[in-house]
Batch of 3 targets.
Target 1
Amino acid sequence: MAAAVAGAHGTRDHEGMEQPSAQDVSAPGRIASPGEGIDPQELALAARNHGLPLEALRYEVTPPGLHYVLVHYDIPAADPAGWSLGVGGRVRTPLALGLADLRAFPAVTHRVTMECAGNGRARLTPRPVSQPWLVEAVGTAEWTGVPLRLVLAEAGVRADAVEAVFTGADHGIERGVEQDYRRSLPVATATGDDPEVLIAYAMNGLPLPPQHGCPLRLVVPGWYGMAHVKWLREITLVDAPFTGFQQVVAYRYRSAADGPDDPGEPVTLIAPRALMVPPGFPDFMSRTRVVRPGPVPLEGRAWSGHGAVDRVEVSADGGRSWARAEVTAPGRHPWAWQAWSCVWTATPGHHTLTVRATDTEGGTQPLEQPWNRGGFGNNLVQHVPVLCC
Amino acid sequence: MAAAVAGAHGTRDHEGMEQPSAQDVSAPGRIASPGEGIDPQELALAARNHGLPLEALRYEVTPPGLHYVLVHYDIPAADPAGWSLGVGGRVRTPLALGLADLRAFPAVTHRVTMECAGNGRARLTPRPVSQPWLVEAVGTAEWTGVPLRLVLAEAGVRADAVEAVFTGADHGIERGVEQDYRRSLPVATATGDDPEVLIAYAMNGLPLPPQHGCPLRLVVPGWYGMAHVKWLREITLVDAPFTGFQQVVAYRYRSAADGPDDPGEPVTLIAPRALMVPPGFPDFMSRTRVVRPGPVPLEGRAWSGHGAVDRVEVSADGGRSWARAEVTAPGRHPWAWQAWSCVWTATPGHHTLTVRATDTEGGTQPLEQPWNRGGFGNNLVQHVPVLCC
């Protein structure tokens, strides 16, 4: 039995007149001042969310706990046994599906590389204040579930539906807007099979962990993480484009020149990126690497949401000259990262290693990062400082 | 097959004379300037290590991926099949034990709450620059393994042994000292059964994940995390107190008044702490909580390495008045956190909730944080800003 605590008296605002509202806890987006360090709010996000320690790029499938996690609000307390996924709106037969119902559909497993759209944000100058990722917001998992198109076929999508809206159980406030986390996909994407979107109930062969959407999440191969709605509880077919916060306010590319009312461009597919397992061993604090002179094997992973990775190049002189690395073929896993490797001959002194991926569509990584207000899709090449001695 | 990259020429130091050394990548410890935000090196640590999202305090045993992780250097690439744990030094029979050998000993499972000694460091003023934890560097797991005392009995500890030194496979540099991660315990602790120290090979019933020490780690119930050596590959009995970096340089309590050569006091047992599941729902960026007026159930966990938690108190007025919460008895798990709960009657306005644990030894949490140079053992009470509206 719980004990009781007497409540303190409510406070009024500074004019002593109005009752507070939920908007009071939520500030508009902002850009850090020149030279401003990471602030306490950004630190609180960095402490609860986490990236992939880069040495974990050595694993083709990321072990549990090393895959990146971004949670907008709180991880909901989910009861898998009582969970019900509603499918409604512009459908002929609204559905309410429990986990057993979903497991009765054919099960499909896809190996998918997932990346946060904000990866790289903390390297921007000036820095948009939000989750401060450097380069590590990525991971690859085997996701098992039901193809979304099969569930939508069962419900019968009406001809006037243009989008499917996905609602998660996570609830919070963002820039003054109280909301359930909610995102949409065009009907053609939701009912298509390239990529095949999943309603996933397992990750690496086990039920979804709480932080990855237990008991159900969307998996949209090739798209940045914001599309993979976690703790999925409702799918609503709608006859007009969805205008919710995460669709038209957040997750848009807006340039410095755009006004505050500029709609920007939607964030969708993952831009190409290669990352390296930092060679040698690190200093605890600076993370600078130390290697011995001679041949140093370099390896890592590369991926793109726009197609296979065609080419990975490595530079040991800060991007002045590049050498091609070996890249594995995508093979049976078209939506997963590809391994690359090469050998670098280290000589005594300080070096900066750089790696760059180019996909089959010709997309590649910039050496100077373009800037956008939200800090999305930042695929500036990785820089790995190394001392050879 | 890997391609080859031509090495850039080595660089000389700024005087053009000397070859670089590994010390060049490693700076002395430092204290942040007044008002200095989290720097890029601290951010890099925060992005790769991670805490427990506070809502995960709802789980009595922390699910995989939510338990805090601190890795000094890199997670080693371990091969469990070929792993060998050496036991040597001042013993009668040196041992080399594979995983099968260890599994042939009696298996014991202990539920243990583990906390990083640096938890709370980022709330200190001024802030020691290192892994910038707020309050979330904690977790509770079921650890299964062999009691260390049984392995040491098999080796036969010689009468002149005073400490056991534990060596991990993680290698790096810290403040200019290249090292394998290495810590010691007094022989009485290593061979004792209160607490019973484990050589653990499983966490929550599964083989250790890479980031938690795969395939072997030490578990020292009641001690801060630095004692629980991960990727354990060597146990060496020694006839003089161990003077390695992690024992006599790092992980010492040193006050502001102490000189740089002051040995300080060793960091050992976990100080008492209570944490609350933040009630209501959050703002994404500020993490401020929103609740509705009326009774609000509050719950959380409390622990101490010095004994059971005797009392948990909650304040809704910033620490002026306190009310007792209900606390579960430690029961069958003396080294795990205890659950606490109470009900707070929320009234409209801004509030700060605070919770404080006191253990059976009389140890409790400060309302004003004492300061030490390394930022260790900071158990200042948690503050949870809440808006009721």
Target 2
Amino acid sequence: MSAVLTVADLAAKARTASRRLALLSRADKDAALLAIADALDAASADVVAANAQDIERGRASGMVEGLVDRLTLTPERVAAVADAVRDIAALPDPVGEVVRGSTLANGLQIRQVRVPMGVVGMIYEARPNVTVDAAALGLKSGNAVILRGGSAAESTNRTLVTVMRDALTAQGLPADAIGLLDGGRDAVRALLTARGQVDLIIPRGGAGLIQTVVTESTVPVIETGVGNCHVYVDAAADLDKALAITLNAKTHRPSVCNAAESLLVHASLTQEFLPKVLAELSGAGVVLHTDPAAGSAAEAAGIPHVPATDEDWDTEYLALEIAVAVVPDLDGALDHIRAHSSGHTEAIVTEDRAAARRFTTEIDAAAVMVNASTRFTDGGEFGFGAEIGISTQKLHARGPMALPELTTTKWIVEGDGQIR
Amino acid sequence: MSAVLTVADLAAKARTASRRLALLSRADKDAALLAIADALDAASADVVAANAQDIERGRASGMVEGLVDRLTLTPERVAAVADAVRDIAALPDPVGEVVRGSTLANGLQIRQVRVPMGVVGMIYEARPNVTVDAAALGLKSGNAVILRGGSAAESTNRTLVTVMRDALTAQGLPADAIGLLDGGRDAVRALLTARGQVDLIIPRGGAGLIQTVVTESTVPVIETGVGNCHVYVDAAADLDKALAITLNAKTHRPSVCNAAESLLVHASLTQEFLPKVLAELSGAGVVLHTDPAAGSAAEAAGIPHVPATDEDWDTEYLALEIAVAVVPDLDGALDHIRAHSSGHTEAIVTEDRAAARRFTTEIDAAAVMVNASTRFTDGGEFGFGAEIGISTQKLHARGPMALPELTTTKWIVEGDGQIR
């Protein structure tokens, strides 16, 4: 009950703040962002000290070193977080953009204008830099944010939010533009059901978090981030490109959602290309989960491998592991991907125009790549200058989301007395 | 359990059909739409006969005449429904539109392309023309639809769907592009939770239906249609325009969502304008629910009125009734609207640029009108050529929705071996 009250209170304050934010000029918002960046730099030692508490608590409870690294903020990392805020200040303001418009036959002038969403809830896991990114992207797009970070980063997040709120106050802006949600699961549930008070919830994290949010929320949600990405090497592939793309997609940064999790190889390539790519993957430390045909090729070449289970085709390893299958033809690849795609990013390597055209047309995913690594599905790579997450749903936003995706639109209709 | 199986089966068939639809050319889709229109014309007598059964059943169960009229299909109305399908055939195809794109520094060519949603569920009430409209808009935008009409129109809807499915089959297209959901509430619940099988659900109907869908659905929903629209007559209004707009907004078609439900009048207008507008409204048969100040004005002029209750300010009458309040100033109007708006359409009547600018900027609604009737928030009026509903939510679509709103996008990335 108290959690519900807390969330209602937090949401009401955020709503009030959001009305101020919606009216701010770009200059005012950018000044506030630069003030936040400076404040983060000035508070670097406090942030690192708070972060040290989280790390100590994490280590004491047996947190693995990979997670400890994601959680850790050094003075250099704090400086990078502050610089990211300055980068956001430099981006164009999405608010006020006229998306379309016309003058109707009766003289009414109509235009569809970008406006802030209002109050945006972010629910995310470890990395504390998301706390600052989300607040800064929210502010730039005129939205108040309610942040719910992982409990592992609790002290860090609290310090970061305090620093940012104080900077807003010093700028004469409402501190409630940036809210931090405390409390247990009840508080999260209250946030997810604050329909009408909260306009949008963006979950960022593992499949379990996303699933919970999607199932429990009555507030509109943008689903992000689960990526079971495939690379399909077609019969007509340039095999050098295929090798480079497969290795890059799998090994460049295995822990992220746009890394490849499955490799599909055309049956005509089992003799030469398949052993070669399996050897290179294995040499890079990648565990190979093979179907019978790929297993035979690995076996013949003396490459370590394990038989793929049914689950492997649907697994987002986020690690140096890959599922490998041989497919009879392009249709086999399309069928396999349709059955197992998470709708994030799917890639084909081919020099055959017809195959590329069918693949890009028939595959239903946020991004479809021809002769490029799956790793390019990214707001930064696409030139957006920022990213709040990668949507894998079809409603509102699909693929990398940046500032415009944090806005909605409003129709403004101006007349001189028109009636129907 | 059997309902669940039915929905899963229906959704699976719709998914298979949607894959065919997504690849159809505009020419193929338009030919199918024209064939459907011709088939509806040819089956007019069957449709009218099926409709007569629904009407008989309705009358026997005491259906009010207004609803009977909405339910009724005459030969002329069937012809109009068929013509509406021809109009949809004449609209541009949204699928394939390149929304944006660029060539990145590394040579990757990226473009964001409009693609169909996939499978769209429509849940709606009485009017059987929605059955045909939704199917036609779905087909034009490359989507398979699962239709759930009101039980009052059951025979009519079944006949309409059979006619349309047969027309698709005759065109060599999958009949499962148009599915009709039978069964009770369990079937609806199964549809609402068919996440992953159904891509989008659009409810069209009263507040109760919308609320149920929004609360129970795990499939993404676009909320439509509840309109508690306000007309605010400012101190600087042209009073002739104000009178015409108020009367039009309230009385032109009171049963629809863009009709006005509340009138707010600036305190400076209580002497002359207020009695005049109240008299005209009352003369047009409108019941006046007045706040104390408006009540005094009505009383003094001998105009019938009833005191407004707290509920009146939030009531969508959809009838010849209106709530009337006197506000001290523009801020009072903004506060009142913020407290009671359903986010559909809000209008100001004023010749004051500053007041108009504040109103259009500060009011958070799908459409904000200056010196125009609220009745203009409509896909047809906006020149979209069709309308599947009016979204009152902020995600994906806001305001009148037509063909583009039934699509999502996909990023197509073409390279020649790029890696990160």
Target 3
Amino acid sequence: MIGHGFMGAAHSQGWRVAPRFHDLPARPEMTLLVGRNASGVEASARKWGWEQTATDWRAAVERDDIDVIDIVTPGDSHAEIAIAALQAGKHVLCEKPLANTLEEAEAMAAAADRAGKGVFAMVGFTYRRVPAAAFARDLVQSGAIGEVRQVRSAYLQDWLVDAEAPLTWRLQKEHAGSGALGDLGAHAVDLAQFITGQRITGVTGILNTFVHERPLLDRASGQAGTVAVERGNVTVDDLALFSGRFDGGAVGSFEATRMSTGRKNALRIEVAGSTGAISFDLENMNSLGFYDATLPGTRQGFTNIMVTEPAHPYLSAWWPAGHALGYEHGFTHQAKDFVEAIAEGRQPEPSFADGLQVQKVLHGVERSAEADSIWTQTV
Amino acid sequence: MIGHGFMGAAHSQGWRVAPRFHDLPARPEMTLLVGRNASGVEASARKWGWEQTATDWRAAVERDDIDVIDIVTPGDSHAEIAIAALQAGKHVLCEKPLANTLEEAEAMAAAADRAGKGVFAMVGFTYRRVPAAAFARDLVQSGAIGEVRQVRSAYLQDWLVDAEAPLTWRLQKEHAGSGALGDLGAHAVDLAQFITGQRITGVTGILNTFVHERPLLDRASGQAGTVAVERGNVTVDDLALFSGRFDGGAVGSFEATRMSTGRKNALRIEVAGSTGAISFDLENMNSLGFYDATLPGTRQGFTNIMVTEPAHPYLSAWWPAGHALGYEHGFTHQAKDFVEAIAEGRQPEPSFADGLQVQKVLHGVERSAEADSIWTQTV
Amino acid sequence: MIGHGFMGAAHSQGWRVAPRFHDLPARPEMTLLVGRNASGVEASARKWGWEQTATDWRAAVERDDIDVIDIVTPGDSHAEIAIAALQAGKHVLCEKPLANTLEEAEAMAAAADRAGKGVFAMVGFTYRRVPAAAFARDLVQSGAIGEVRQVRSAYLQDWLVDAEAPLTWRLQKEHAGSGALGDLGAHAVDLAQFITGQRITGVTGILNTFVHERPLLDRASGQAGTVAVERGNVTVDDLALFSGRFDGGAVGSFEATRMSTGRKNALRIEVAGSTGAISFDLENMNSLGFYDATLPGTRQGFTNIMVTEPAHPYLSAWWPAGHALGYEHGFTHQAKDFVEAIAEGRQPEPSFADGLQVQKVLHGVERSAEADSIWTQTV
Amino acid sequence: MIGHGFMGAAHSQGWRVAPRFHDLPARPEMTLLVGRNASGVEASARKWGWEQTATDWRAAVERDDIDVIDIVTPGDSHAEIAIAALQAGKHVLCEKPLANTLEEAEAMAAAADRAGKGVFAMVGFTYRRVPAAAFARDLVQSGAIGEVRQVRSAYLQDWLVDAEAPLTWRLQKEHAGSGALGDLGAHAVDLAQFITGQRITGVTGILNTFVHERPLLDRASGQAGTVAVERGNVTVDDLALFSGRFDGGAVGSFEATRMSTGRKNALRIEVAGSTGAISFDLENMNSLGFYDATLPGTRQGFTNIMVTEPAHPYLSAWWPAGHALGYEHGFTHQAKDFVEAIAEGRQPEPSFADGLQVQKVLHGVERSAEADSIWTQTV
């Protein structure tokens, strides 16, 4: 695994736990953890249970005893590592967003296409693997809501509400590519396309930055109150609002923001069809709302399905009905799905091509926002 | 009162009940009900308690013993009646939307401006008078959520989901002006502006029609299954999605649809500010969500305020805490506010100018939608 | 109508509004309002729209042009008035609880039995007439939850949480009979029996008083802070907890309290059967939770039915789907049901016998509580 | 660890994950897994990551290199194993309920008392370690709801609703001790006492069995439909309802059932005090309802606190705010708390004495139920 930040902890838990609950065709070995800071990566490896460490990702790519490269670094290094790993014949799991620019994403998808027979790449949209989201897709694809017409998708967080929150790399375009759009909007788009089975073909959008200057990260610490805090420019969006049309005829609205006060991790999606609807909110991740318009009229309503039954996706491996799963289970399910596909010689989903397609939608939103919200094709 | 459809029943209940719970400075008398069909209006008057009837609205405008004209007809007759009534020195209460076209709305606002001293006109956005909505405004205006940044407003119904629902006048542009946009979007816009105290200055939007042909109303009845049902074209939108910027710096998303399966009367609004947020859904109309980001961090969360305390807006007249009000109470509160303003010689809110402003926003959405969603100024 | 307190306002609204929305076989006339204080009753009559007033309830009973006596006085005068009215051949609607003592309740039920042919008495458990509660009964009686096994019923309010709330008559046994038990527990029992269609046959219970002394009502006012407040003893329960067995085999728990902090008017009931369950809370009175255990396992869950469809009980007279009703609509429905039954010569429900049976259950709880919670038969 | 059923999986996950997220003073080693069936325990050990296996629990007690014995067998073997382990100087973690009989529980508590200095025993009420439950206790103990008055506690499941569910050992008194009472009621009692900080001193209760005969487990399989299914008697309760008084003056109601249709794992508790209230439901385990009656009246309501902030109990080790934890995290927290207490030479909570006290309450309920619900002291 390359990288050992917050996502590193989550992926480590995925690799560690997956074989303890699921019957996997191959057992993952947590061989090598890579990070640029030797003592830091050593500490992470000890804590998370990785056998060895290295400070250069090339060490992993070059080793013959390593089959899988898991990339959890910031987006600007994804392309270089992933392409090299694929060329070296390694399977690749890469965190989302696939890359910071459309060009890099295209190069990565091309590298995955060119990879040898039986070498696969996957992008880490783990929210597909929340059982309630996976079950939402099952319902929609089985026709339970009829013809899909409307989508309402939003990913709302609030950790940037405070205007004095520091100017991290996530707020600088050169490092992060975009703001809430790429960080959160990518999930909202992927989940909408995953559940509906439709692809977005065009968009109109606006981007907005509410707080234009924030304290510089290293200058701010330790001096609060005594000297003037040095500030830098926020160069990404705080809020993205866009609407899109899908290739199957559906129409959707999307929102991504890290300034929606009171919403901590609210990835919400509502999908309405000709005979039903579903409703999901990641802040209540073990439940799915389902409206069945074919029931007798007086008995219709949104049913709060606790997606914890053994027959629900991923659940047979876990606890009795009603016992909740949490955030990190998505990473366990991701490890399971990835290992199974690799072992069976199948392309795991979502592929780099899927990741590229999401990137194109986000790119379309940016172009629309720069051009007075004009309608912009994304295919 | 001119008109005696669904809105006539609601307004009648407002006039009847207001003086029984509120201490009004003047007691409304339900003198004359006007409708084109003599026997129909006679039956309505008997049922609702109006003293007399007429078949021509001019009868009301010409009578000296009538002070107030309440207009609840479809939108295409609002302008003519309201302008005549104002010219005759009557106070006017006119249902929303103010008119079907921007031109008519402008003429009505001008007539209200020209009306004699102490003659007033009001437009019927009653949802402002749901106590939870009024309290939301109070909170926001008192600074309880800080600087207002984001608005998420939607009005969702589902009575047109069925593709075989007949082609009523509400689905024909020549009669209804627009579809969900004018019928429901008008409320979403008014409520957002009312609560934030900000005005929308520009929009980008899309309109969509999912079902393009529907059975003709009079042809469809009685023949189902035996002969081919004659169909006509739906010439209005089924769905309106738009985003707007407010003059105070806020940004908002809006949705109006009558095809959101499972949503019966979901006028929803969420407003996020720099120190808090509010959340409201008309389907749960006695409650308001309020997030106070100034509380200690571990105690923050959305508080479900039951807006039924005597100290909440309009509530001192009603029942003990926890006893719910319903849909029609908005009309009672409207009657109360209207009578009080008239008796005190004040302009009741929202004025025709307010109604015109909402109309301009909707008009901007239509123009944007016709021009590839290009950003469109609305002021 | 005899009495003109809070309940007088509610009943007046019921009589006033019922004929405006429902097609009644007879139109109620609000002829005479009776109260002991001449100026007070005069003011109430003017506000609520009663034609005449009197200060002695016998005036109503003796008049030939009055057909119905509606009793909304405190419980200790119910028996005398109701019995006299029935003897005079008047139909009687009497607020709950039927009486303060079992003996009075028995006398009232006997008087109703003895009343002339076509003379009827009804007790005012209006919560049966909340559409969601009525629909819950319909579901259960139609077999939608199978064999009824468990009931969880509670009526929670919080207006006595403050230990400095004054010692009103409701806190004195000689005037109120009991505390939360009779005031709120009566509703919890009636609703449970109404929905299940089963009668409670035995109980075990405890009663508790948390605040034993409170400021005397008339002494407390105007002197706060200056002199010692005089206090009196609370002689009724603050909390009643009891369990009961039903004649159909179900088992239930009950709670009544006016000190459940944060609960304003939470009459809650959950009923579980062999193939389903229902869940209702008066604080969310337009909704009913329904669990259908015969659906496919992965689609089961509590469905939030908005009980606002035209096909739901009482709803055809009101607004389109999704438009909420409020507290007072129960009184309108009560007026409707009463008038219809009287006009058709049927016994309206719940009868005085039904009210007496509830009283016996409450009496059983008191006896059990006095005898170390020993199991006590109530039939 | 002795035992390898469902609880074995949960405890294994606790031991495995705790050191990966928390900084523990000692690292647990998963040395030996014991089960009576050699091949079964071998498979479990391989799956869960235990190094060695044995078929006799005495093997564990006798080994010098083992410091901790974790007991997850059915209740009837707890006493023998725990007492032997304590006598051998091992720390013991024992699943709830402590034992099947009061006598055994007393013996275990005595053994823990007699254990050598620095040897500790703990009972596994893990729901205390759900962050929202732990935070509820913190709030109540900090005085945030004032003087505690009322408790409403219930543990509702529904896996025995089907009358054809087989007669497992959990339905036989000789193996399980009691039914829902011991299985679920134990949690309801422990959680209520944990949060309030008060102990139950007396109870009145009833027990009920709805389904008296069920198919025998081994006879039923494979033959359904072809021959008459042999049935056996259910000798434990399906439902326990009881009320209790606490030593601090609070009064509470309790319910335990495995036949509450639609409730999968609903451990609910509401606690009301003189200045606030809390509300929790394990089916929504990342949230806590908190009512603060000291806020301005118009702003009061139940606040839905997402207990996922770094400052909430246990949360600093996990994910960013808003990222949910699940059922098994309680076992990770249990492992952490146990290891920390042992390493620091402190008695971990809840102790065997705490477990015994809960047992006494359940025993009191049984005695009350057998004696016509008579009030029964439990101290």
